[in-house]
Amino acid sequence: MGLVRDESIVEVIARMFNARGRDMADSNLRQADVPEGASLIPQQIGTAPGLICPIGHKVLYALPGVPYEMQEMMERAVVPDLQERAGERAVIVSRVLRTWGVAESTLAEMIASRVDTQSNPTIAFLASGIEGIKVRLTAKAADEPTALELIAAEEDELRRLLGPLVFGVDDDTMESAVGDLLLKQGLTLGVAESLTGGLVGARLVEVEGASEWFRGSIVSYASDVKFDVLGLPPGPVVSEEAAAAMASSACRVLGSDVGISVTGVAGPAEHDGQPVGTVCFGLSVDGEVTAVRTQLPGTRGLVRQFATISLLNLLRLRLLERAER
Asked: What CATH number is given for 174-324 in this structure?
């Protein structure tokens, strides 16, 4: 298969360079060389066109390497061409349910009745490490509204089985789920964090509109900061009592309706006689203060990441309970 230079492509490339006030290198002319029998996908963003090259009963697509140029051509030309060649018009829609709180094996058991009988939509598990387990639903139908109806029906069934383990869909995050609940309930949040070193506050401010409900975070990493700034009583700083006091102090110091806290041992050595991975969480909601102790696995970095999302999830569950009262 030989190459033929397409002068119309040369003109398009030359105009792009002229419009930018740049000289076109001779090497750019190679972008106008088209295999015999191939069809062009005209460029709309960059200088290189795409190609549709039939080879016997198969077809080869050649697209630019720049990601946004490739994506634009994929959506504009490649997908429609594939649909035309397939002789079948169909729409495929996916939705991801995001969960936190159980292992993948436990989650699989909980929804086994749906997985064992799946057809359309299909169900797949996507482990996401520190962001939980994703359950992806994929439906195929003649049109998008029908595919979305299939997805919605299956989502209802899975939510019935999983309950509050589902904290969001698609691009939702744990912090955005918490922010939505705080906003709906008209509450503000203050944070006192130790071993996470600011990770909790950093994740919260990633949420658009966080200023409406987030008061701030006190990173009381050193023990004397816990005593002097938060007013903790003397004693071990890695304990449920310390976590509870930190949550209450977050409300007092930051003037928030809700206070959450985290203290613990990320490593490399034990602290206050507690082993690495020991983490204590505190919550203060409506004047009711609770604390939870847990043991988290992994490296120093993983312990801090797991502690951050686990604390936010505890608050999410507490706010869900509050909404039901």
From this structure: 3.90.950.20
